[in-house]
Design goal:
Elements: H1 4-30, E1 38-44, H2 51-60, E2 64-68, E3 74-80, H3 81-86, E4 91-94, H4 100-103, H5 111-117
Antiparallel strand pairs: 1-3, 1-4, 2-3
Length: 119
């Protein structure tokens, strides 16, 4: 049986995780680029998408693949957000001013921050 202090800690931890997930979902939905957005962006595919399938979808969308990130399903591309989503991308986000690998879980693809550091 779980002791009373441990039960409180477990419930508190579960509440924090649930709140974090809800906040991240809202932030990610709000930061998706509109379909007519063009330029350098992050193209996010389903995590089960293979390297070759993602590359093929990017080229079918008429986008120029710039580089793959450490996560094989996220690519930095130069193209149009609407074309990428039509070809299977989950979403397109403004390219971050720092590497997504360094940004970690707290990175938010915010257009305002990105424009501050974009040429």
């Amino acid at each position: 049986m779980i002791a009373r202090p441990h039960r409180f800690a477990f419930r508190f931890f579960a509440a924090v995780i649930i709140l974090w997930l809800v906040a991240m979902f809202a932030l990610m939905r709000a930061s998706v680029l509109p379909a007519d957005a063009t330029g350098t962006m992050l193209a996010v595919f389903d995590p089960s998408t293979t390297h070759d399938d993602a590359f093929a979808a990017i080229t079918r969308a008429g986008a120029k693949p710039i580089r793959k990130t450490a996560f094989g399903f996220i690519w930095v591309v130069d193209g149009t957000a609407g074309n990428l989503t039509r070809e299977g991308a989950i979403g397109a986000y403004r390219d971050l001013p720092i590497s997504p690998e360094l940004a970690g879980c707290v990175a938010v693809a915010d257009r305002k921050v990105s424009e501050l550091f974009s040429p």
